[in-house]
Structures are given as C-alpha cells and as structure tokens.
Amino acid sequence: MGYRRLLIASAVALAVAVTISAKKKKNQEEVTQSLELPKEPPTVSIGETSRLTFQVSRLSARGLLSQQTRDALKAVLKENSGGQVVHIRAFVAGSGDARRVPQIVSDVFTDKKQALPSVSVVQVGGLPLENAQVALEVVSRGKREVNPDGLLFIPGQTMTAPGGSSATAPLLEKSLDAVTAKLHGAAPLAATCFVSQIGNPTGLLDAISSRFPGAAVSLVQSQRAPWQALASCEAVGRGGARIERLAFSGTQISFGYEEKDAARAFERLKHDLAEAAGPSPELVAANVYALSAPVADIARKLCPAAGALTILPFDGVAAMDAGFAVDAIAAVSK
Predict the structure, then answer these.
(1) Quick check: 246 and 49 in contact, CB under 8 A?
(2) Edge-to-edge order in the sheet of strand 52-56
(3) Are residues 202 and 255 in the same domain?
(4) Per residue in 77-94, pLDDT tens?
C-alpha cells in the first residue's frame, strides 16, 4: 500500500513538473514572439497645409553621426511645442553611413510614442560648422492654423559660374534675388541654399537670414569637390494655391544609371504618392539629388514636376549603386 502511494505521489510530482516546464517554455515562446521588428518610416506622410510649420536643427560637432542625429531629433521634439512631425530631410556630411538615419528616426520617435514621419536622406559635401555631420529640416503639423492662404513652394533658383569659393557669395545673392522675386511679397517660412563652397559660413548664413528674417534657414555644400561654382536657393512662403492637405514623400532611389532605372524610380514615387494622396497626384514640388550630370539630364527628362523641380549634384544618397534620389510634395485629393 505504501509502495503504491509512493508511486502515485511520484507520478503526480512528475506531472506537475512537466506542466510547469511546459508553461515556462510557452511563456518564453510568447515573450519571444511578442518582440517586434523595428518599424521603418512611412514612404509618405500627410499634413494639413494650414497648420504646417518649419524648423531647422541646430548643428553640433559633438560625437559622430548617430549621436548627433539623436541629439538633433530630441532637441527638435523639445522645441516643437507638441506638434506632430510630418517630414524630415536629413543632410549627412562626413564619413557616417547615411542609411542609419531613418532607423535612428524610427527609434527616437518610437521611444517617444509618436507617429513616424517620412524621411529624406542625402549625403552632402559639408555643413557650416566644422565636424558637424547632420542637419535636419523638419516639417510639423502645429496645433493652430498659421497658413490660412496655403503655401507657396519656390524651386531652387540655380546660378553657376566658373571659379572657386570666391564666386559663391555673388552667386548666392543672385539666387536670393530670384527667390525674392518669385515670392511676390509672401512671408518666407523656410529657405535652403545649396552652394559649391562654404568658405565663409557666417557671412553666407547672414546673407540668407537678412533676406528672410524669421524663416528656418539651411546652408549646405552639396559636393565636397565641385567642378564649378554654384548657388541654388529654394524657399517656402505663405500664400499660393489653397491646398487643404499635402503629402511629403521620403527619398525614392534610382538603382542604376540608365533611363529605365530612372523611370522605375519615378513610377515607385508616383505609386507611393497615389496610395496616400489619391490617383494621379499633382506634384507641388520635387527635388532630385543627382550623382552625375548624365543622370541629372535623364531625371530632368522624366520627372513629372517640370515646373517645380530642383535638380542639383550631390555626393551620395542612402544606397549603393544609385544614380539619384528624389523626393516630392503632392496635393492630397482624397
């Protein structure tokens, strides 16, 4: 009898042990299965035109690309007064891997439990602060209406000439004159100037800021070793067409250097915008970041935003074997 009870007790103990082990294993599997892969920024993000605001991150020379990007994002979110970030354009200088930027944006915004913005990333020749590796241009949706009459997007007004850095300042002034004329008195909200050389960053920034006081201003050297002197300024002002909502795309990349590669990139861009903004999206503005002159000519031929198109040479984009990258802003029709 005692032996039988001992057998029963042993069997019960074994069953309990097996049950506990199975539960432990199941719990471990559930924990493993609940881990999510890092999210990628959306290909397109939408914001109400009347509430859009523009910011530029402060440049920092502390740390490498990852730290500078995180610090810039945290500073922007802190200064944003609770607005939702819709789009970020990142200019990456130095030897840092530009492909890291979208993932860092995802990490920071996920940690803050905020919706992810669309992200454009471009590798540039330099920024107006030594050892600065990233500059962020940020479009946010604020809490109140600030653009009741819509927004006006001025594409890059490009001026070129033979020569080095000594020609940059005069070309910049000519480009700023052209932008001012196209604004038709509208209040400027943001301005980005691309130059071939940043020999005097303080002087060049002062020239831009004095023309557009109160605007978010960026200065970028597009290539490390340009073959000609260049200055091209683009701007956003209040006024223009009253479009209720705008769709901002991240950079779409042309993998390859032939016309068929460029056509595929523009088709992907059109598809992404159509899904978010409605069929046959009307492009309000587009930027092509070209890595060679022949590729720039192909993009100019194929890009559907002929009237609001900026095509400039850059050092690189966030991909290998790329001919160019393109991002765009489109009117939302749905």
Answers:
(1) yes
(2) 52-56, 134-141, 84-92, 118-123, 316-317
(3) no
(4) 999 878 899 999 999 998
Pick from 219, 240, 261: which residue ends a domain? 240
Which tens digit of pLDDT belongs to each residue from 12-47? 444 444 444 545 444 554 444 444 556 899 999 999
| Number of Cβ atoms within 10 Å of the Cβ of 51 | 18
Report the candidate in 222, 219, 197, 198 with the shortest Cα–Cα distance to residue 209: 219
The whole-angstrom separation of Cα 193 and Cα 221 is 9
Q: What is the CATH number of the domain that holds 226?
A: 3.30.1330.40
Closest CA to 297 of 270, 324, 321: 324
Does residue 110 lie within any of the structural domains? no
| Domain ranges, residue 273 | 246-331
User: pTM of the predicted model, to two decimals?
Assistant: 0.88
What percentage of the chain has pLDDT greater than the value 70?
87
Question: Is residue 36, in this structure, part of any structural domain at all?
Answer: no
Residue 234, domain member (yes or no): yes
Report the relative pairing of strands 245-249 and 322-331 from DSSP bridges. Answer: antiparallel
How distant, in Å, are the alpha carbons of 15, 65, 81, 101, 154 from that of 117?
A: 53, 19, 16, 12, 23
Provide the mean pLDDT of the chain: 89
